[in-house]
Design brief:
By secondary structure, this protein is of the alpha/beta class. It contains 15 helices and twelve strands. It has helices at about 1-20, 50-65, 80-90, 100-105, 125-135, 135-145, 175, 185-195, 210-215, 225-230, 255-260, 265-295, 305-315, 320-325, 330-345, and strands at about 20-25, 30-40, 70-75, 95-100, 150-160, 160-165, 180-185, 200, 220, 240, 245-255, 300-305. Strands 1, 2, 3, 4, 5 and 11 form a six-stranded mixed beta sheet that branches. A four-stranded mixed beta sheet has the order 9-6-10-12. The chain has a two-stranded parallel sheet with strand order 7-8. Helix 6 packs antiparallel against helix 15 (about 330-345). The longest helix has about 35 residues, at about 265-295.
Amino acid sequence: MKKSLSIILALLMLLSLSACGPKDSNNANGNNAESYTWKFALDEAKGSNQDIYAQIFKEVVEEKSQGRIKLDIYYLGQLGDGADQAELIQNGAIDLGFMATGAAGTMVPEANLFSMHYIFPDDLDKAKQFLAESTVLNETMAQAYESKNMHVIDWMDEGFMQWTNSVRPITSPQDIRGLKMRVMSAPIITATYRAYGADPVTIPFADLYSGLSLHNADGQSNPVEIVEQMKYYEVQSYLSIGNSDLYVASLTFNKDLWDSLPQDIQDIINVSVAETRPLYTAEQKAMSDAALTALTNAGMQVNYLSDDAVAEFRALAATAAESFYDIGGNNAEEIYKAFLEEVSQYY
């Protein structure tokens, strides 16, 4: 893995001599001004939520900069996998990109907070508002990223994670007990599923369809768009809507690059983020609604967890807080409690 990353890093650094960062050129208005061409890495494929956001952001920022900024988008696998891309952004071989908070957790311990279940408002509009306004996230968490040479310009959600499985509907913690549930490689997620009574199984995302097909896992958790795009409905019979956790990715610049930018370019980027959010939200909602309809039409049995069931899951999930205290950095307990106090205002 390290050898592969070193090779990728070396190649990208060579390319960056001619393709990245500032350079002098004529902009769209014919003025002699610095222009910028940046590598923008996604850790998902074409057609994904990240792609939707990226295409909107690219259009907005290139228009607002009047041609001074150009973004070249790269998809998952083109510049390495999610973990590689996170490290390459940190090292400056990639200029900016989406970084799954799960991947970031190995470099930014505080980011493991995002792996906890039932900590965000279960209303998506309120959750989005919280991401944009939260002091804990946009100051405390952002500073933790800064200390690792990464500058967060936005927290992008991909909707709530939902459970699918091939055994039975999940209507309460009793139903998930004993199920082999695929999880990402994150201690907090593993601890949470064990608290539910499930049997957590780590399977790489690229291998998840085959893992479900071979019954190496009974079920998994992803936003409904992913369930539909990856055709998990072919090997999963039940979809249980419980809004257990919010899938969040940070839109992150290499900090050295960000700090080198003139104020007017930073302002253009920040304004472009603000304009991208509502446009992305509208596209995301339409895609989510279409995916849910498609999954129903494909024969999946869909159920919605009751408020009482959610309360049961929430109480069990809270026991995983100790895991966050262990791996979330020196101020983990303080961050967690401040987060919960802040988020309570959005219910």
